[in-house]
Amino acid sequence: MTISPRFDQYEDAWDTRCLVELRVGNRIETVRFFHCYKRGVDRVFVDHPMFLEKVWGKTGGKIYGPVTGTDYEDNELRFSLLCLAALEAPRILHLNNREYYCGPYGDNILFIANDWHTGPLPCYLKGMYQSHGIYKNAKVAFCIHNIAYQGRFAASHFEMLNLPDKFKPSFDFTDGYNKPVKGRKINWMKAGIIESDRVVTVSPYYAQELVSGEERGVELDNILRTTSITGVVNGMDINEWNPLTDKYITANYDATTVMDVKPMNKEALQTEVGLPIDRNIPVIAFIGRLEEQKGSDILAAAIPEFIDENVQVIVLGTGKKKLECQLTELEKMFPDKVRAHLKFNVPLAHRIMAGADLLAVPSRFEPCGLIQLQGMRYGVPPICTSTGGLVDTVIEGITGFHMGPFNVDCEVVDEDNVQTVIKTVKRVLKLHGTPAFTEMIQNCMVQDLSWKGPAKKWEQLLLSLGAAGGEPGIDGEEIAPLSKENVASP
């Protein structure tokens, strides 16, 4: 079962007509649950105006705030409501339109709590359920997707959570940064880490980075060294991202036809974005959020220094206005070389992957990253920094190019990092069109980038916590399939 807010009127999710009252802050709120059964998984959506009316067509707002970089003032209430609803759903929902099981999941549950938004869940589990004999054998695995976002709030806001005082030390936190107020706070992610039975993150190298020091661990490194953390690299959806069947691209291809077909996709892409048509000129793409984590500001600073080379650059993404303006100016300065599409456009993202030669991934930090997996799937070697999941998934000289680690300070553009991008791009462009580059494209495309391997490791991890009554899993051993009935993921 997956449990998430109902942010839209999902057409295949039906009203269960199951309502539950939950105490959030100083008031009682009623939520109802919508449900669909898809790909063998119950998808449950928590319906409440704090979710749907903030995002779907009413305010034009985003999931976490009205505009990028600004939070809704009631985010604490919104996500504590999600945690409480997630604890109720497996107990009370009678999901009777599934082929394998009918009725509620029951008490024997393993919750996978994702990121700071679910930090209070293990506390609610212990303080409101297990203390009353409910969910006695339930466990929680807490998964960190990006430690930069921790849910730091004023210390006085602990009272809004309606938790026993014994949990206060797990939330207490001294904020060493000045945004917006330096000093004592509560930290939802810290509580999730401490109170859960297992802490997981999305790649092995990122797990190492998080315990390596305060800078990478964003002031939670000491806590993680105490609890320990396991890294399991993400897989990707190889059905949605498949150049052989992709409905968005001009010509389909696989590893055996890529060298003949990709030039046609490049010409179609150049035509679409308005760049000079030349199948022999290398095209470097950047697809992602325009924010400091992704290093789009570093790339923008480097472009004028390498754009005189035989190269074109295409950027697709939205984000902070100052970064959007920076890229718009570059397009004006180099109209025959640079295109910046500042919008969310899934079909164009697919066509860029099919037509580009190289993928720029200059992230200051990257827990795992999916974009480099999608690029390699389409035969686009990444030019990436050496951080997080990029280290685990891209092999220098074999499936891509590494630039080394970058300065993680998002307040500045480190000139050394800019020069590294320039030097690496120039190095890579010399290799383009050679037999070695062709071999690299082949290496990218023949990899298994699916969820098959990562799912097996997750299965071992969950079995080690007692899911499905299993025994601890050991790498290399044959493990029985994990039961679907007793895993809930908010």
Give descriptors for this structure.
18 strands, alpha-1,4-glucan glucosyltransferase (UDP-glucose donor) activity, alpha/beta, starch biosynthesis, glycosyltransferase, 6-stranded parallel sheet, 5-stranded parallel sheet, 490 residues, globular, single chain, 34% helix, 17 helices, transferase
> Which word captures the global form?
globular
The assigned structural class equals: alpha/beta
Q: What's the helical proportion of residues?
A: 25-40%
Q: Which strand order does the major sheet show?
A: 14-13-12-15-16-17
Distance between the ends: 8 Å
- Percentage of β-strand residues: 15-25%
Mean pLDDT: 91
Radius of gyration using CA atoms only: 24 Å
Low-confidence stretches: 469-485
Structure at a glance:
With 490 residues, this protein is of the alpha/beta class. The protein contains 17 helices and 18 strands.
Q: What does this 3D model show about the protein?
A:
- InterPro entries: Glyco_trans_1, GS/SS, Starch_synth_cat_dom.
- It is an enzyme of class 2 (transferase).
- Its EC number is 2.4.1.-.
- One of its GO terms (cellular component) is amyloplast.
- One of its GO terms (molecular function) is IgE binding.
- By secondary structure, the chain is of the alpha/beta class.
- The protein is 34% helix and 18% strand.
- The protein contains 17 helices and 18 strands.
- It has helices at residues 49-55, 75-92, 121-129, 168-171, 188-195, 204-210, 214-217, 221-227, 258-273, 296-306, 321-333, 346-355, 371-377, 388-393, 415-431, 435-445, 452-464; strands at residues 2-5, 14-24, 27-38, 41-47, 110-114, 139-144, 152-154, 172-175, 183-187, 198-201, 230-231, 283-287, 312-316, 338-341, 358-361, 382-384, 401-402, 487-488.
- Strands 14-13-12-15-16-17 form a six-stranded parallel β-sheet, with helices on both faces.
- Helix 10 links the parallel strand 12 (283-287) and strand 13.
- The longest helix is centred in the first third of the chain and has 18 residues, at 75-92.
- It is globular, with a radius of gyration of 24 Å.
